[in-house]
Amino acid sequence: MMNKKYLTIAIPKGRLGDESIEMLKKIGYARPVNLKSRKLVFIDEKQKIKYMIVKSIDVMTYVNQGVADIGIVGKDNILEEELEVYELSNLSFGYCKFVIAGFKDSKHHLQDERLRVATKYPNMTAKYFNEKNQKIEIIKLNGSVELAPLVGLSDVIADIVETGGTLKANGLEIIEEMYDLSAKLISNRVSYRFNFEKINDLIKKLNQVMEDVSNDENNRKRS
Ligand SMILES: Nc1ncnc2c1ncn2[C@@H]1O[C@H](COP(=O)(O)OP(=O)(O)OP(=O)(O)O)[C@@H](O)[C@H]1O
Ligand SMILES: O=P(O)(O)OC[C@H]1O[C@H](OP(=O)(O)OP(=O)(O)O)[C@H](O)[C@@H]1O
Fold first, then answer.
1. Where is the ATP phosphoribosyltransferase catalytic domain (predicted)?
2. For the whole model, what pTM was predicted?
């Protein structure tokens, strides 16, 4: 890892992809990357950076294994995977919440002995309820989680809410908010030490661009 030629960055495809690339392009990175192509590796010979395009949840694995030095990932994946990576920077996109949701009158179920919770995030969910000393039965799903209470598969769900549109469309409501989430820049722990300058230069530029955008927004609001 010490004498590697390239700094390697894992970029998530899916929801966080476009904004990750947009932000990196603003600071002069990710020039060769084109998410619309089916290519998974892009090399910037000039800057000596390699970009790998991976499924969102797998960013954690690539960075934890040191195959990627750094990566962009949702906080939900950091909490779910429980791997030893450094969280370096909060990025100003991918905002959403991790919530418990169900039918309007299902709040009382939260105390049930056998509360059945459907989720794509079993670890995060188990930890949350464990801290509250609440026993639950987790029903692991991989998508369309909102369907579970509708068909009696679970009492409630633990899932991400962004606009609230999916809950609303299925007659469900937020019962309890657990965590605020957003995209994060993460690093492999060893890579961080060996690429300290390069990584910190990237962080500084990212922070600057986020500060500029936030100042622009504040100025616009004031005028
Ligand atoms: N409305 C949302 N729903 C899901 N994730 C969101 C939402 N808004 C922001 N995010 C963030 O985007 C990240 C990636 O979302 P994406 O949908 O690409 O992943 P995924 O659900 O694992 O992918 P796939 O749909 O291919 O299984 C999430 O981990 C989360 O941090
Ligand atoms: O509050 P909203 O803006 O409606 O977004 C929330 C929905 O989006 C995510 O699902 P996704 O679209 O990733 O689909 P999935 O059901 O296949 O996981 C999430 O699991 C919710 O279902």
1. 57-207
2. 0.93
CA of 128 to the centre of ligand 2 (A): 20
Which residue puts its alpha carbon closest to atom 4 of ligand 1?
160
pLDDT digits (tens, 9 = 90+) for 110-150: 777 789 999 999 999 999 999 999 999 999 999 999 999 99
Q: What is the DSSP string of 165-190?
A: HHHHHTT-EEEEEEEEE-EEEEE-HH
| Gap from CA of 167 to ligand 2 centroid (Å) | 9
Q: What is the predicted ipTM?
A: 0.94
- The tokens for 47 are 């800057």
Cβ atoms 43, 9 nearer than 8 A: no
Query: Which parts of 13-119 are beta strand (E)?
Result: 41-44, 49-54, 70-74, 86-90, 96-102, 115-119
Residue nearest to atom 31 of ligand 1 (CA): 74
Q: What domains are defined for the chain?
A: 7-94+182-222 (3.40.190.10), 96-180 (3.40.190.10)
